[in-house]
Amino acid sequence: MLDFSAIPIIDNHCHPIVRQQKVDIAGFRGYLTEATSVEFAHKHVPNSVYYLWFLRQLAQFHDCERNEAAILAARDSL
What we know:
Blueprint: H1 25-30, H2 38-43, H3 49-62, H4 68-76
């Protein structure tokens, strides 16, 4: 058990690392929304400014094309 008593504040909004890291495009989009509807992720997430910025940053990080398929392929190869 971890002892957190020395930490004055704990942010309870943490995203744990998941065992299964490979995801499809719908699952990947789901990481960027709190909506539970797959339809929402399909229709709205790819048009959000934050998601487009996120794709640009990940493409630069992975040195790949700036599209979901290329980013997921680069991510899955790690």
